[in-house]
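User: I've been trying to design a sequence by hand for this structure and keep getting stuck. Would you show me what you'd pick, starting by listing the structure so we're on the same page?

Assistant: Good idea, let's start from the same input. This is the structure you sent:
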């Protein structure tokens, strides 16, 4: 995939992976629309629709925004906390897809990257809501890939274990020894640069393999 001139929208750019990925894609030649919660809270479909009206069609949609919870057994996590994660990590992504994928289908081109997690493939104790949402992202990606028009590519990407505030909240410890966000962003840009929209549709990939 040639990145020069690509119009890319990234959610969750206030910090962590998104904050590092936006400038990395700009350096690669993309026209980047960086979306934080101040621009649109993706948990609110009305705000997502308003965002889509403002920015118009994009060539590359990176659904990166997500949230996490404090570690606890499933039965100790309140219903409201489950709902908060589902509203952002799953339904928020659905709202973004509903708002931006139809234009890609209409023109027969476009790439969607749904940011998943290792915990979207392997479950972990005391992280049941987060794992459930990331398993959902993997399944959602596979289903959508079977539905989009020829020429549109939908992939899930596991960024690996990255030293972010979310990881520190999850581990409840220092995470500075893990991959820094800038390193992850570099891997993601390399992945996108090698992406083959025809043959990669529906794949689930690991960023650190690129």
């Amino acid at each position: 995939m040639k990145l020069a001139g690509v119009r890319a929208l990234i959610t969750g750019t206030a910090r962590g992976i998104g904050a590092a990925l936006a400038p990395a894609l700009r350096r690669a030649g993309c026209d980047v629309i960086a979306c934080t919660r101040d621009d649109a809270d993706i948990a609110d479909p009305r705000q997502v629709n308003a965002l889509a009206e403002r920015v118009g069609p994009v060539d590359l949609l990176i659904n990166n925004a997500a949230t996490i919870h404090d570690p606890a057994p499933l039965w100790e996590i309140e219903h409201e906390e489950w709902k908060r994660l589902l509203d952002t990590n799953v339904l928020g992504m659905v709202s973004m897809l509903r708002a931006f994928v139809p234009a890609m289908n209409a023109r027969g081109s476009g790439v969607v990257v749904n940011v998943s997690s290792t915990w979207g493939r392997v479950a972990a104790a005391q992280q049941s809501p987060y794992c459930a949402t990331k398993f959902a992202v993997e399944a959602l990606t596979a289903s959508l890939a079977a539905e989009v028009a020829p020429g549109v590519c939908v992939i899930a990407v596991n960024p690996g274990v990255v030293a972010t505030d979310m990881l520190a909240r999850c581990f409840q410890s220092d995470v500075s020894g893990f991959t820094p966000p800038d390193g992850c962003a570099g891997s993601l840009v390399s992945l996108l640069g090698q992406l083959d929209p025809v043959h990669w549709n529906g794949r689930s990939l690991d960023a650190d393999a690129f």
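That's my pick for every position. To get oriented when you compare it with your attempt: Residues 105 and 121 are 28 Å apart (CA to CA). The mean pLDDT is 93.
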